[in-house]
């Protein structure tokens, strides 16, 4: 039977020859990732776990600990890792936003299933992985049993053609799709086509991550030479990629001409049906500019920001905060001079954490303020006050706007 990428993976992992839309399948999980917040809230150590080699722990949301509750959670995580022999423990100093750590360490592999409590777990779909955020109780169950269940939803395929323009990022591509097509609740999203080769891995990760914001079940990318090279660089081997059948049945196929895209921005509240090309947005002042998160704190994102900021100065009255997605990204960006460029321009580089993205620490915004962010969400109250406005754009747009003091087309700064 002809299948899409996600259907192929779910069939393999459930031991079935095929699956169809509407089926409920029980699958083996190849990697389960726990994050620090679990250990700070109602953590009950299990009596046993299924396989310590299929489990990882990442300290990411509250690092270094901003509260006493978070500080108490750290010892729980360390004791659990020691008691059960979990070697994939990314403690403070090896830490980072979990999806970045997953990518850096080859934990997300083609054709496999990955589970994590974070809602942006779909980020791993960039690596041809079936990945989806699940609730803490379900993750606890997977940790103990090694399996979980999924409902097979219909799949929408994005057929990419043309080539991505240099000034367009994965964030811009996603914001265009979210504005054009709206929500994808109870749907899977699949990305492929001849234009995919022009989209580098960091942009694919951004797109896959952001698909959580249109409520997609899974977001998966086709396996190609670009992905193969990335995985080789990150010591991933022995996997079995999943490919869609030529006659796979899709709920819809949407053809996207990458050549025609330009920098985009999402207005406050939601990304769905709420975007506009940056060039068409009325002059909008900002108080805070943020570059970071699992979506856009990658090394390439910091490189883009550094190039825009180099030799320039952040506008008076604007706070530019930059959060590398992991300690490894931080160190490499430091070696390459990106952090120096950012700091010299007046930006503040923070520790690697999810803090500012979800309004917890490292950059909470206040009442009446306007923030332009490259993070994952822009709903009311996400990054702090419910009386603040959050716009979303690419790292290039955020950096350019930090210089001008208002939301600006990056092409106006880099031209």
Name the features.
Aconitase, domain 3, 14 helices, alpha/beta, 18 strands, 415 residues, 2 domains
Describe the model.
The chain is of the alpha/beta class and 415 residues long. It has 2 domains: 5-259, Aconitase, domain 3 (2-Layer Sandwich); 267-412, 2-Layer Sandwich (Aconitase, domain 3), CATH 3.30.499. It contains 14 helices and 18 strands. The chain has helices at residues 5-14, 36-40, 68-84, 98-104, 136-145, 170-181, 201-210, 225-233, 293-296, 299-309, 327-335, 338-344, 395-404, 410-414, and strands spanning 24-28, 31-35, 55-58, 89-90, 113-116, 130-133, 147-151, 155-161, 188-192, 219-221, 252-257, 264-266, 275-277, 288-291, 319-322, 348-349, 370-373, 389-393. Helix 2 (36-40) links the parallel strand 2 (31-35) and strand 3. Helix 6 (170-181) packs parallel to helix 7, helix 10 (299-309) crosses helix 12 and helix 10 packs parallel to helix 13. The radius of gyration is 20 Å and the shape is globular.
